[in-house]
TrEMBL record:
The keyword Secreted does not apply. GO terms for biological process: activation of innate immune response; negative regulation of DNA-templated transcription; negative regulation of oxidative stress-induced neuron intrinsic apoptotic signaling pathway; regulation of circadian rhythm. One of its GO terms (molecular function) is RNA binding. Residues 8-59 form the NOPS domain. The keyword Isomerase does not apply. Keywords: Coiled coil, Repeat, RNA-binding. This is Non-POU domain containing octamer binding. GO terms for cellular component: fibrillar center; nuclear matrix; paraspeckles; RNA polymerase II transcription regulator complex. Residues 62-155 form a coiled coil. Residues 1-22, 230-258 are annotated as: Disordered. The lineage of its organism: Eukaryota, Metazoa, Chordata, Craniata, Vertebrata.
């Protein structure tokens, strides 16, 4: 009798494996029941019967399920491969994007460092220019001070040398004039005095000779006073400029020399 819901049985050959140990057939009890079951062939549905018809339909369904399962497996496998390829491409693209961002960041840092370096170089150049300008200004100031000092020294030399020279010449002239006056007073006669009035002491009474008591002046630089004194003493000739007598009258446009 067929069961209530007859379904086909799928029979597949058993794979022969070498992992079995011993002889399993020796362990099987071979009695009459065993031999009886071995003698009966497998039961198959007869063509055209109810069981055969539904067995074929079950077989078609199983084959369709197997085909669809294979197709689904292939689709899933293709989808997995495609997803893996897309993921690999996206990973490469993401790595490229990260590398591009890193490169842009490094370029930005390099540009910033270059700007800082340029600013530092500019500041250094400005500092060097300021230092050079300050050094040039100091040198110019020192040169100006030196020129001013030299100019003042030259002006001081020019101012002191004529004064000393003029003073020296004036002293020589005074000494020469004194020598001439002494010689003249020794040569001229004494002035008349009233009767009964004592004569005042003077160079003429004390030194009647013009050659007595004369000493050459020491302040004359070129010895002109000594020469003039020698000429007046030896020759006895009065010099060109004689000293006026005491108490003499002078014209309004004339003044005493000494």
């Amino acid at each position: 009798l067929s069961p209530r819901f007859p379904r086909p049985v799928t029979v597949e050959p058993m794979d022969q494996l070498d992992d079995e140990e011993g002889l399993p057939e020796k362990l099987v009890i071979k009695n009459q029941q065993f031999h009886k079951e071995r003698e009966q062939p497998p039961r198959f549905a007869q063509p055209g019967s109810f069981e055969y018809e539904y067995a074929m339909r079950w077989k078609a369904l199983i084959e369709m399920e197997k085909q669809q399962q294979d197709q689904v497996d292939r689709n899933i496998k293709e989808a997995r491969e495609k997803l893996e390829m897309e993921m690999e491409a996206a990973r490469h693209e993401h790595q490229v994007m990260l590398m591009r961002q890193d490169l842009m960041r490094r370029q930005e840092e390099l540009r910033r460092m270059e700007e800082l370096h340029n600013q530092e170089v500019q500041k250094r150049k400005q500092l060097e220019l300021r230092q050079e300008e300050e050094r040039r200004r100091r040198e110019e100031e020192m040169r100006r001070q030196q020129e001013e000092m030299m100019r003042r020294q030259q002006e001081g030399f020019k101012g002191t040398f004529p004064d000393a020279r003029e003073q020296e010449i004036r002293m020589g002239q005074m000494a020469m004039g004194g020598a001439m006056g002494i010689n003249n007073r020794g040569a001229m006669p004494p002035a008349p005095v009233p009767a009964g009035t004592p004569a005042p002491p003077g160079p003429a009474t004390m030194m009647p000779d013009g050659t007595l008591g004369l000493t050459p002046p020491t302040t004359e630089r070129f010895g002109q006073a000594a020469t003039m004194e020698g000429i007046g003493a030896i020759g006895g000739t009065p010099p060109a400029f004689n000293r006026a007598a005491p108490g003499a009258e002078f014209a309004p446009n004339k003044r005493r020399r000494y």
